[in-house]
Amino acid sequence: MAETSQDKKQTNNAGFQPLRKTNKESSSKDKMIEGSAWMTAGSIFSRLLGAIYIIPWVIWFGSMSDEANALFAKGYNIYSFFLIAAIAGIPSAIAKQVAHYNTINEFAVGQRLYKRGLLLSGATGIICALILYFGAPFLSNGDPNVVPILHSLAWAVLIIPTMSLTRGFFQGYQEMAPSAISQFVEQLVRVAYMLVTAFLIMRVHHGNWVTAVSQSTFAAFIGAIGGMLVLVFYYLRHRSRLQELARNSKQELAIPTKQLYKEIISQATPFIIIGSAITIFQLIDQYTFFNIMNHVYNFSATIVNTLYADFAFNSNKLVMIVVSLGSAMAITAVPMLSEAKTRGDKHEINSQITDALMLFAFFMIPAALGLAAVAQPLNTLFYHYDVIGTAVLEVSAFIAVILGLFTVISAVMQGVSENVRAVAYFLVGVVVKIALQYPLVAYLGAVGPLISTGIGFTVVSGLILRHLNQEFGIGFKRMSKPLSGIMVFSLLTFIVAFAVVRVAYLVLDPYSKTVALIVCVLAAFLGGMVYLYATLKTRLADMMLGPRVERIRRILRIH
Fold first, then answer.
1. Listed residue (385, 209, 215) closest to 314, CA to CA
2. What does the pLDDT look like over 193-238, one tens digit per residue?
3. Cα–Cα distance between 101 and 11 in angstroms, integer?
4. Domain boundaries along the sequence of the chain
5. From the centroid of its chain, how far is CA 533?
6. What's the mean pLDDT when you consider all of the chain?
7. Is residue 186 within 8 Å of 159, Cβ to Cβ?
8. Can you give 286-308 as a three-state secondary structure string?
9. Could you please report the per-residue DSSP string of 95-118?
10. What is the spatial distance between Cα 271 and Cα 82, in angstroms, rounded to a whole number?
11. pTM of the model
């Protein structure tokens, strides 16, 4: 059957947010910026909520706060792995395949894929929740306090896979707002439940701190209900448009249900491993750090738990705010790259990879260096004054750049259907991580796991970048000038913010949380203004974000 010109037009335009019912043309970079803006906003606000709650939470737990943080981290690392296994990479796979079918004007197939995926994600959620609940004693690594934490987290595993799948479906239509808003609502409800229960248990009833932590982790289930309700609202809102797209699609593909399931699973399996990459490294830390420390040092269990909390929970909570920048761009890139791959457009793939890397560097590098500069007041504000905790946070901030880079380029590999190769490269990184773990922990203590993680992901990222350059070409020449500007301006940001912190603490109390807040805000503001002014003045911001920044320049009167 010959394809008409109308069919071709539909095929070419299918990928541009078809739920909006618009004929507007847009470049891939514009779509990436818009999608990244939504996902970044949702992710950043969610991460900020997930960090800000720590301030009252730590105060209410008092002297048990480090122990509580360590217990929280132990439970969440195991839960995160089971959650990723339950989700099974299906949301990213669905987003990728829905975008593929939308590109060829087979909207009905993409919607069938989503409905079959709902059954699959529901089944994996139930199975993984049961394993997590009944297997808790075997997964606790000998710590009986971990068992009730895993029991409370098993409930979230039931519902989150379905929620994540629905987010992936909307992302396949390049609609990032439903995902971003549901993510924010999920976190808002979760944090509200955590704070209310922690206050009631620890301050009103003076209860057991393990019980309070278990309620704080059960909040993941409560938050998931809130996030799911947002997605249901958006689905109902767009249902008539989805039905219209399905009716008017070409409907030339008749794919049996069995083949749809096979397609979902074959696409999803590599996403499980890559999606859980950072969690796998954290689990390696959790199951090796205590044994190595006990073998090398004669520290008490309380001290080792405190050191573990420093890098596994305290710094991780703050650093993941920065890493979420990379995650936001990664989520946006997958369906767009899938479209370009479907069309066989290597030039477009090259352009999208280059744009993704430059956008990543533009936001991620100054954010990470800024975080390192304000590590001392930030750690004091959220936790308490601690020299070791500050050093761990500084190192974590630099490692965040590597983690963010891996997040972006591993998503690129998935978007261009290089899933198996991405998994192979990651396994090389795991070997490097394990080989370095003992000597680095033995010599560097709490910083050791961070360094081994950084080196492991550097190896993986290097292998991926080399392959992408060989296969599709990366515009390194086009990137060289803006990257140089980003590095210089980021260093200036770091110097200004670091100087503000050092000068302030020459005269102010380093133990005060109020002082820490003032110093953080002042250093972040001045450092951020330096970066903003420099990028606007040199037109680097225009190169990254397009003409939309001209309005900001006019408001700030920068010519």
1. 385
2. 999 999 999 999 888 999 999 999 999 999 999 999 999 998 898 8
3. 9
4. 27-244+256-275
5. 28
6. 83
7. no
8. HHHHHHHHHHHCCCCHHHHHHHH
9. HHHHHHHHHTT-HHHHHHHHHHHH
10. 14
11. 0.74
